[in-house]
Design goal:
single chain; about 110 residues; mainly alpha; globular
């Protein structure tokens, strides 16, 4: 059984996560993110390597379903999508900035 202080710390962490999610949702709404477009682009350009549920199909791939993208800033994720990283190709010139923002917003929904 968890001790009281461990349960309290766990509850505080969950509350912080909920607040963080609400802030993210507010920021997404302000940017007028198109989640449907982000989903479609993910299916076309990302799913083969990152998996349908974002769990990463290849060794070393981030596991979006465990929060690997959620805790990174949008600007970092946008840069990775624009420039590529490791074996992942960059999508600068392939996707517009708006499309990249939509994909970044979409992958944050996997958590």
């Amino acid at each position: 059984h968890m001790k009281w202080d461990e349960r309290l710390a766990d509850m505080i962490n969950k509350l912080i996560l909920v607040v963080f999610i609400l802030l993210q949702m507010s920021a997404l709404k302000a940017l007028e993110i198109n989640m449907s477009e982000g989903h479609e682009i993910f299916i076309q350009k990302c799913m083969a390597c990152h998996g349908e549920s974002g769990d990463g199909k290849l060794p070393g791939q981030p596991n979006f379903s465990k929060g690997d993208a959620f805790y990174k800033s949008d600007s970092v994720l946008i840069d990775v999508n624009r420039e590529g990283k490791g074996v992942m190709p960059g999508f600068d010139g392939v996707l517009s900035e708006e499309e990249i923002r939509n994909v970044v917003a979409y992958i944050k929904t996997f958590l």
